[in-house]
Amino acid sequence: MTKQIKNEINELVENAKVAYVSSVDGNGYPCIKAMLSLQHDDLFTHYFSTNVSSHRTQQFLHNSKASVYFCNENQFKGLMLVGDTQVMTDREHKAMLWREGFEVYYPEGIDTQDYCVYKFTAHKANYYHGLANQDFIMEDFENA
After folding, report:
1. InterPro entries under this entry (predicted)?
2. Spatial contact of 100 and 109, defined as CB atoms under 8 Å apart
């Protein structure tokens, strides 16, 4: 992987307002939902917030397999991350992702029982741009 590709990937993620998060339903079918891209530790660890009572949360509690997709539709660039999602209900993760305005959805603040955070950890990735696909793992990305 070249430094240019690494920079393109970082730029794609940093500029994303929305990411497409997929889970697997009880019948083995993929389910995709657009979610706000709020925070990430690095390219391979991303956080999203939602309701504990949501369908997707129940899916992740039964099957942690997931993918997250970032795209720039104007430049035909896309990054698919494949990994696992943990449903976090501890105060530390909930506080980390809390944003002004969330109280509209979660009136009790970070202590709202129906508020949780998804911690997605990727194992591998695929970057698409310019009719080319590049598969890679974290070590490939870090060493570029």
Report:
1. Pyridox_Oxase_N (IPR011576), Split_barrel_FMN-bd (IPR012349), Stress-Dev_Protein (IPR052917)
2. no
